[in-house]
Amino acid sequence: MSETKPWGSYTILEESDTHKVKRLTVNPGHRLSYQMHYKRSEHWMVVAGTATVTLDGEVHVLTYGQHIALPVEVKHRLENKGTEILEIIEVQYGTYFGEDDIVRYDDDYER
After folding, report:
1. How many domains does the chain have?
2. Are 87 and 46 in contact (CB under 8 A)?
3. How far lies 48's CA from each of 4, 10, 44, 80, 98, in Å?
4. Which residues pair with 110 in a beta bridge?
5. pTM
6. Alpha-carbon distance 33 to 20, whole Å?
7. Alpha carbon distance 91, 69 (integer Å)
8. How far is CA 80 from CA 7, 15, 18, in A?
9. Is 110 among the domain residues?
10. Residue 59: CATH number of its domain
11. In a domain? residue 75
């Protein structure tokens, strides 16, 4: 299953009671909302492009093969400041994986 978003798109690669795996594609110059989750942690691995990740206000720049853990209830944002497509493999783990477990603090698309 794939879904288009204002920042790019995501595709669900695998889904179970214990985890969900997605491929996120972020278009150049776009970013996801600054957000957090109550019921899941996430782990992001860069498979194409360069990711700018904000994790509780601290900025990390990740390139191919690098990864970062996003613990439950930690504010985070993914951004593509580059000119090429950014692709991330996201592994979610926790007790619930619904899209309604998102608390947004800042969103370029006013969601």
Report:
1. 1
2. yes
3. 18, 14, 12, 11, 26
4. none
5. 0.94
6. 20
7. 10
8. 9, 26, 29
9. no
10. 2.60.120.10
11. yes
Q: How far apart are CA 82 and CA 84, in angstroms?
A: 6
Q: How confident is the model at residue 111 (pLDDT cuts 50, 70, 90)?
A: confident
Joined together, the tokens standing for residue 28 give: 């150049």
Chain-centroid distance, C-alpha 55: 11
Tens-place pLDDT, residues 45-87: 999 999 999 999 999 999 999 999 999 999 999 999 999 999 9
Amino acid at 88: I
User: Are the C-beta atoms of 65 and 45 separated by less than 8 Å?
Assistant: yes
Range of 48's domain? Answer: 2-105
Domain annotation covers residue 111: no
Structure tokens at 68: 């970062």
C-alpha–C-alpha distance, residues 56 and 26, integer Å: 20
As a whole number of angstroms, the distance between CA 89 and CA 51 comes to 12
Confirm whether 85 is domain-assigned: yes
